[in-house]
Amino acid sequence: MNTKIKLGAAILLLSAMAAPTFANTILSTADFTDYGANEPGSYSIDSSDLYAVSFNVDKATQLSSIGGYFSQYSYGTFFGAVVAANSLNALTADNAASSSLAYTTFTPDGTDQKFDLSALLGPGVYDLVFGAIGDVFSSGGGLVSGQTQNQNFANTFQLTNGSWAPSQNQDVRVTVNGATVPEPNSLVLMLSSLLGIGAFTRLRRRNSI
User: What's the whole-model pTM score?
Assistant: First the structure.
């Protein structure tokens, strides 16, 4: 095979290995059970009642989306935000957009939804926060309860009357999706191997002349 073709194929392989994929589930608190019009109830969310779930990433991770199963009786505009765990106590609906690592808004439609949210996170503990924008007359609703919990996620929190406190509402579905990003040392090793292959190929060609 031509040397240039070999190097080109190796570079494409290196690029593919360096790029994260977006198919991994980082957090899924419960399996999805579609209750349709027969919802058993929901955990209330509005501009003053926020809900947060902690999650951990062990390596550098590129987030792709967040999600949840929101009540069909929700209305108005909601937000989803990812914050460092140590900054949760200072978070409110009013400052979420400016004080979060990643932030998006959406309209609940009563289904199991996903919302694009891009952020590069280093190893550590984070909180996914959901809330509503505006007063209770313009936005509100909640996460559908009665979901079958599928893992022992560490901590859930709720903001009520201006104070964050641990929450017992763990039968709701919340998701975080993304993929691990290759570490710099791995990329350096792959690049060194690629350069070594190129040097060896040139040396062999020179010796055969």
Answer: 0.78
- d(CA 125, CA 187) in angstroms, rounded, equals 25
DSSP conformation letters of the chain: --HHHHHHHHHHHHHHHHSPPS-EEEEE-EE----TT----EEEESSS-EEEEEEEESS-EEEEEEEEEB-TT-BS-EEEEEEEGGGGGG--TTTHHHHSSEEEEE---SSEEEEEEEEEE-SEEEEEEEEESS-TTTSBEEEE---EE-S--S-EEEEETTEEEE----SS-EEEEEEEPPPHHHHHHHHHHHHHHHHHHHHHHHHH-
State how far the Cα of 146 lies from the Cα of 34, in Å rounded to an integer. 10
Say which CATH class 22-181 falls into. mainly beta
- CA dist 42 and 157 (Å) reads 15
Q: What does the domain layout of the chain look like in residue ranges?
A: 1-20+184-209, 22-181
pLDDT tens-place values along the chain, 209 residues long: 555 444 444 444 444 444 454 458 999 999 999 998 899 888 899 999 999 999 999 999 999 999 999 999 999 999 999 999 989 999 999 999 999 999 999 999 999 999 999 999 999 999 999 999 998 889 999 999 999 887 655 588 999 888 999 988 888 999 999 999 986 654 444 455 545 555 545 555 666 66
